[in-house]
Amino acid sequence: QVQLVESGGGLVQAGGSLRLSCAASGRTFGNYAMGWFRQAPGKERESVAAISNSDGRTYYADSVKGRFTISRDNAKNTMYLQMNSLKPEDTAVYYCTARYGPGIYSSTWYKSSAYNYWGQGTQVTVSS
């Protein structure tokens, strides 16, 4: 089992940048595929990005492609989401999520049901 703790959220002006971090407990972080989801007020949770545990392959939602970068440091048990050129529509609670073992592919990464573990979330607010 893994516990996930997000940090790095906050208030930023449109066009600005933030870097979110997700710290994971346990000694087998490298065996987990990781992802970020977000949920804005009154909207359903949506996928943002994911990174596999095997070959480091990354996946992005069209709405963030070219602006956000997902990465991981297995030695630090930490995943990151670098967010640039932020827009007011990026305002949401951002959740870190993890899946043990295989199962995150181009056809599954965007499904919340593909993941086993979730963090508590960190608020990101982008002002116009």
Tell me what the structure shows.
There is one protein chain. By secondary structure, the chain is mainly beta. It has no helices and eleven strands. The strands form two sheets. Strands 2, 4, 5, 6, 9, 10 and 11 form a seven-stranded mixed beta sheet that branches. It has a four-stranded antiparallel beta sheet with strand order 1-3-8-7, with no helix packed on it. β4 and β5 form a beta hairpin.
Beta-strand content: over 45%
Low-pLDDT runs of 5+ residues are none
Radius of gyration: 13 Å
Helix coverage percent: under 10%
Averaging pLDDT over every residue, what do you get?
Answer: 95
N to C succession of SSEs? EEEEEEEEEEE
Structural class: mainly beta
Total helical segments: 0
Major pleated sheet: 7 strands, mixed
Calculate the terminal CA-CA distance, rounded to whole Å: 40 Å
Q: How many beta strands in the DSSP annotation?
A: 11
Outline, from the CA principal axes?
globular
Tell me briefly what this model is:
The chain is mainly beta and 128 residues long. The protein has strands at residues 4-7, 10-13, 18-24, 32-39, 46-51, 58-60, 68-73, 78-83, 92-100, 117-118, 122-127. β4 and β5 (46-51) form a beta hairpin.
Primary descriptors:
mainly beta; four-stranded antiparallel beta sheet; 48% strand; globular
Describe the SSE topology.
Layout: E1 4-7, E2 10-13, E3 18-24, E4 32-39, E5 46-51, E6 58-60, E7 68-73, E8 78-83, E9 92-100, E10 117-118, E11 122-127
Parallel strand pairs: 2-11
Antiparallel strand pairs: 1-3, 3-8, 4-5, 4-9, 5-6, 7-8, 9-10, 9-11
